[in-house]
Amino acid sequence: MALQAPEMGSGVALPAAAAVAQRAPSGRPPGSRLITPYLFLLPFFVVYGVFLLYPVVDAFRLSFFEQTGISTPEFVGLENYRELFTDERYLKALLNTTLYALASVFILSPLALLVALAVRSFMVPSANMQSFYRVAFFLPNITSFVVIALMFLLVFDVDFGLLNAALQGIGLQGFNWLRSERLALPSIVLVAIWTFLGINSLYFLAGLQNIPDELNEAAALDGAGRSQIFWSVTLPLLRPTILFVLVQATIFSFQIFEIPFLLTQGGPSDASLTLAIYLYEVGFRQFEQGYAAAIGYSLALISIVLAGLQLLLFRAFGDD
Amino acid sequence: MTVGIGRGGRLAQIVGNAVLLLGVFLTVMPFVYMVCASFKPGNELFSFPVRILPDSLYWGNYRLLFEETSFVRWFGNSVFVALARTILAIALSLMAGYAFAKFEFPFKRLLFLLVLGTLTLPLYVILVPLFGLMTDLGWTDTYWALILPFTAQAIGIFLARQQLLGIPNELLEAARIDGAGEWAIFTRVVLPLAQPIIAVMGILFFTASWNDYLWPLIMITSDDKFTVSVGLPTLVGPYSQEYGAVMAGSFMGTLPIVLIFLLFQRRFIEGIMAGAVKG
């Protein structure tokens, strides 16, 4: 992607000259054009610098200190990071979050692709029907995580919940979804699938719409069957979208907070503790700011590495 | 797709739609139950067997919500915070996006890459020091803390720049020749042409602010400054017998966003999808 408008060429090299040349007709004092862009940038970058860049740097500094509450910070080098490897609660949270991310990548994303394929395919011929599905599946995406969690508290309730009532209605047995160590995390995954299926389907739908119909028609004329078209035309052309959805799913999975926090508080016995919940507890209940900062950086690092790996994998298998 | 409906195609069509409709049913059901529960008294909500529709329309939950909790206040706070944050974020994004789209200046590429680099930075990285900064500024438990830190949105710069690149340079030059100042050019020429992306950003930022939970949870301690998102879960505690009121609040708290969604459906989806790669 070109970062500057084409007609401006390599203006970065000689900005002053370019600015003067463009300024000439208006006859304002020289140099006024030169600071104009910076004046437009100023408000954004003041806020950005104070509330984003400074905290990013400060978090890095903090992660090398031991600081609890308002005590005097003590430099401990890499101790906070070393502690991560032996902290059982952290490792449990990492495991849970990773399992959750795997479910997003291997269950949620393929499901979303299937929905998109179905909506886009011959199965839903009318445009009205297509937009009906679109709106319906999109609803969870505009609902706040808080409301989603409050709704699902009622859905998962062991005695009076909708889900158990439905299960018992078809002759099955209900479960204590949120208070069972075995089912707490799968329950969170269920809610996540419910929440994010729609938006991911929409991403895939947008990707599918970018594939020209002529390609499918040409393949069909050449005698390719439907599944053959899917594997050799649709899927390869959809690769950028698939990559985007998977990277997105991975990054956001590592930030899951509200839904488990409000549904299970990370319990029972940390069965649904996520990295973000643990960071919140360490930073804002135990007030161990240094350690919380280290957890924050580990969270960012892990999701960046995983997203990078996916990028590399896609490159590796990319060139057919 | 125009691949014809062949053998079994009809059957596949019926099965496919049945599965999709089941999906819609499962998606919509929790919402339906939320609305129904908001019209049930506590003893009916927690009774056996579980029924979806209320026996009769019971308004007690709404009365409780409006008269005995600070819900109305929270709703007002949410509106105020979301509006302030959205307007400021749009203004900052448009100004900076304009500079990136229509000016050449030293360090332009570097600054732009810096912003893009933080596009997906998790809030959790800066949570602790940002809280410390708010404490130092004396902003804990104030609206400032909810509004200002989130007005510099990387995605906003990205969207604004993308849209403003399309403005012809001749238009801006013509205005300059007519003697218009840079600020006048921005407000009279650029802003009107930026309408579509303003709508997209507005929806994106407003929804994000309205649904925000963790940050206000950390920053706000007094009940009368809560937003809807932070306030609602606090009702689960003291009013546990009144879960119907919690559902009433959830319903009322979701309504504004759903209304905006239904009104501006196309722009809305555009806004939420804004991060998606194109082509």
Automatic annotation (TrEMBL), chain B:
GO terms for biological process: transmembrane transport. The chain crosses the membrane at residues 12-35, 74-98, 110-131, 143-160, 189-210, 243-264. It comes from the Bacteria. CDD domains: TM_PBP2. Residues 75-264 form the ABC transmembrane type-1 domain. One of its GO terms (cellular component) is plasma membrane. Keywords: Cell membrane, Membrane, Transmembrane, Transmembrane helix, Transport. It is a multi-pass membrane protein. It is found in: Cell membrane. The keyword Transmembrane applies. It holds the Pfam family BPD_transp_1. Belongs to the binding-protein-dependent transport system permease family. This is sn-glycerol-3-phosphate transport system permease protein UgpE.
